[in-house]
Request: fold
Amino acid sequence: MQRPSRAKPGSPPRRFAILLFPGFPMMAFSAVIEPLRAANALGAQPPYSWVTVGGQGRPVVSSSGISLNPDYLVEEDPPADAMVVCSGGDADQIAAEAPLAWIRRNLRRGAAIGSVADGAFYLARAGLLDGFACTLHWQSQPAFAEAFPEIDLRRALYVIDRTRFTSAGGVGAFDMMLEIIGSEQGEAIQRGVAEWFVHEPIKAGADRERLQLRVRTGLSSELLLAAVARLEEHWERGESVAALTRHLGVTPGRLERTCLAELGERPGAWLRRLRLERAADLLAHGSLAVNQVALACGYGDAAAFTRAFRRHFGHAPGAGRRTARKQHRE
Reply:
């Protein structure tokens, strides 16, 4: 995100506009606004202001069922210095044109654009992330990578790249806002905001990426975390247990003992489960055909994939896609 010069007292506020779509997550929404409020209380210059904007009318119902009445609709063209798309798990299906027209008008005025949770899907489909690095909720990353292979997707809690800022939601959104505030207000206010919420920012670089991997997998073993990282780089290879252990430099016996101790299952069953869970995510959030999903998850035979999917989930891959779409709409 572009950094403005340090402002003098009395400068006009930095205007944030949060674009809300139905099903938006309240935690990610609050993680954008609350740090700005705290920064103002600590003397931010320029101060921050914020408004909510309805992307598809009023009111907007969150994923938790709480309704918000936006301050503006996109048709009212509220100006903004920074816009944040806040959407739910069906962001890959949102194709609303009016919000894009509003976003592009503000971009022409010099604004930045960002997203939390799955909002990067909406921006990517409109071409607004072309040439930028980004991230989004980990559950939607496989489908995003398949849909937009040319976009630099980072497996990170948040990414700030010039005039684009994206996060995986939740704590990632909070840390993203802390970094934005720090770049604009200085370290003292950034630290003050973190202390206000009794929060220790996540460390940068590899530590942050490993923490994200640990959080979304629930794993504690460094060996299993390394195995998952390897699989995520080469899902389509469908690596065997033997190939995986060779790459990790451990014996099959060690991997088996670790899997049994932490997961209660053998490595082969664990790898199969991971591939099928990835397939379910691709089906829920993407538009790839079933045979393409099979290949993307390391299955060379679509029929074998369908049989494995049915055994694991109790229904065929196509039925899983229909169920996921229905749940997102509801």
Observations:
- The first helix runs from residue 26 to 41.
- The two ends are 34 Å apart (CA to CA).
- Confidence is low (pLDDT under 50) at residues 2-6, 324-330.
- The CA atoms of residues 16 and 64 lie 23 Å apart.
